[in-house]
Batch of 3 targets.
Target 1
Amino acid sequence: MIVLPTLNGGIKLVIERDQDWDNLKSISDDAAEDFSKRFSLLMDEDSMWDEIVEPELKDQFSSQVKFVKKQVELAFDNSVDDFEEELPEISITREETELWYGALNQARLSFEDKFRKEVEALKETGKIENGEVVRALFRNQFYFGFQSEIIAHTMD
């Protein structure tokens, strides 16, 4: 996948291969965890976090993931019909990059929770036996690289 800046301050994703689509489609699956609950564990019981802040955070987090999922699905569906001679693209406005960044961040945090033991073992042994973990590592690197491009091209 190629990430290019646009004249309006956003970015354009140019999809080069099927693996790019697989990685983009995986964002919503990897970000499925409810992170708003995680933060409530850090708060004092008297803070009313559960009643006031958590619902808003939950809505914000889920809206980021839903937006990205919808954008990827729409671009994929259109690429089958409209982009037969050109590489498919996803245009992301400057305002939308925050939604994408948030969804990618959720996917990466979820990955770190889910595969923490395997990553520690990799550091010690240099080997990973589980193919799911290998694929997750590649997706995590993809997400990190994508976030880096968002920062480089759209955030001051």
Target 2
Amino acid sequence: MLTRCVLFMFITIFSLPACETNFKPTTEYSNTTMLQGEVSRFLETFRTALEARDFATLETLLAEDFSYREPGSPVLSKSGLLARERRGASGGPVSEIEYDVLSASEANGVITSDVELQFETRLPKAGETILFNGVISQSLTAVRTPDGLLFRSVDVKSQRLFRNGEPVGAEAIEEMHAGDSGGN
């Protein structure tokens, strides 16, 4: 009986270091999960302001050196993106947007995230309603400030866009943001 007890203690003592090394990723996962949640809440604030066309709030969420890059389009600055969104809103679209934060990491107060955006936009045009929808993969950076997060950049990595169920290219983004001048 004593032999079994000693053997059990011996196995237990020598297996403890193995248990400790298996535990470390949980802390990293927890920090990553918390950061993804923070980015998700920030994106929700942005989405709410965008859908409500609250341009004053949108402006406060973008850093002064903000940039927006889309394949095949010129880079937009903070003022350029806000002007495009204002122009697009003048056409009367109704949009629903959902974000899924796929990853997030932080170094020196800069958060980098991979995000998938799904959207559906109904745009009244020439007596009909055009339905745009799609999935856009983006890489976002945000910076920490004393007042919270600010977007520094959005880089569109890929996009699958549809107009009335038919696949389309980046011209759909331009059409959605043409506003009143787009043929209403």
Target 3
Amino acid sequence: MKIFFLLLNIFVHSMLFGQRITINEFRELSLENKVEYYFDNFVGIPHRTSHSLWAGTIVSHHGKAVVPYIKEQLKTATYFTYREEPIDDTLSLIAYILSSLNRASLYPQYYLSSGVPEFILYEEEIRWFYNEYMKRINEYVLLYRIIDENVMLNMIHISFIARNQEDLFQFFGYPYYRGIPVNLQGNEMKKFFEERLGIQNLLITIPYIE
């Protein structure tokens, strides 16, 4: 009997995640299955601005109940996987969910149709995600000694954790660029990481970051 249920579970999983589903079908999944589908299907696909729709759907239906699931996904995620094929950019997918939580906390009237309770990340939760992302980018910078696209991407990911950059500056002393595009902040990033990590002579490797 146990073997039967195991085979049934494998069959259902393959039917569910072995092919793409529509956003309406996605809405009908459980939270666990939504998260699994989201990460399994989008982890290596470029140009995923449209994936914010899927992240927003998870948040609109389940609110902060998604947080333990993305913490679990974060355990093995690093920035080193952005440098090689196949790319695993789990950190970007988590950031989309965090961004959706913050948007929902600012505009709950657009997210409450399904009766979801809470969206707001409290300071200790923001601090936890901030520290986890910074730990990963610190490891990356210390190994490669560069300020590159992945460092820039991390700065964007960080900005999704709180509702605004002023909060990040207030909580952590995180650089507040006052609306200046992050791709123009290479020197500021270099200074920030050299001071944070106690190192010198980081190389800025992307020409359009000045």
